[in-house]
Design goal:
This protein has 315 residues and is an alpha/beta fold. 34% of the residues lie in helices and 14% in strands. The chain has an eight-stranded parallel β-sheet, sandwiched between helices. A hairpin with a 2-residue loop joins strand 2 (17-19) and strand 3 (22-24). Bound molecules: {5-[(3-aminopropyl)amino]pentyl}boronic acid and zinc ion. Residues 170-172, 257, 259, 295-296 line the site of zinc ion. Zinc ion is lined by residues 170-172, 257, 259, 295-296.
Length: 315
Amino acid sequence: MKIVYSITHRMHNPLYELYDGAKIEYAESSARADSIIETLNSNNLGPFIEPESFDLSHVLKIHQAQYVDFVRTSSNTISQNELLFPSYYISDTYAPITAGTYVASIAAIDIALTGAQELVNGERVVYSLCRPPGHHAEHSSMGGYCYFNNAAISAEYLAQHGRVAILDIDLHHGNGTQSAFYGRPDVLYVSIHADPTSFYPYRSGFNNEEGAGLGVGKNINYPMPLRTTNNQYFKILRKAITDIQNFNPDYLIVSAGFDTFMYDPIGGFNLTLSAYTKIGALINDLGLPTLIIQEGGYNIEHLGEITNNFLTSFT
Ligand code: OKP
Ligand code: ZN
């Protein structure tokens, strides 16, 4: 399986995040990608390929030009080790801008788009190791460790070639991806996540959010209780997979977050290591051209193994 990756992600490594005003360790660290690469490497997955660079016009189909410009200029003018929490273009305190944020975020987009291009060229499954993640990034705002929406940008790219389904299995609801395609009949968004009544991002991910206008029925949320177990999860995943089959897409994008793991430091579900092999197998059974995009997953010790278990089901 082709794995698209670049070390440019290391340029983005904020020193802390703000939680209730207190500075706490930044969960979305560069050690995450290192853990994944190391494990995939030692299990002989690959080949690893470098991203190509794509035109900014792809980004501008999903994000507001002024917002993109703001991330670029603030990132390029801030000094090393400084963190910027602006009072606009931001939806929470978990996405500070640092000196390397823009460069790393653009590389993540290129990684996702390179994977999408590979699918159009006939590849069956590609893994895009994006960092920072993207599913919380909206039209003109960053939040939840996300700046630009890698999955939405590549979905828009693939939508030029056919019908696209996005399956978001990150623990958190992908508010950014949902809002990008909320009115669209040609892109299905299905998400399984912790019930937003008591979990980030709190304001979206409820099951009455079904899409708008021509997109009604093309947005499907499955909020799940905290401490969801393997079997509860598989049951809902099978429903989500049926939704995707009914939509009959040409391409599938998986927003692959692994923070559903029982020992994730910011987690809330009870999935075990072996659950990810099964989740991968159930998704692989769809038999669709599939772009797997990395979102969350913060247990550094196990993240590589989780990712490896998941990906191996596609080989
Ligand atoms: C990003 B992704 C930790 C609070 C963290 C932000 C979560 C962002 C998750 N003290 N809240 O969906 O994995
Ligand atoms: Zn998450």
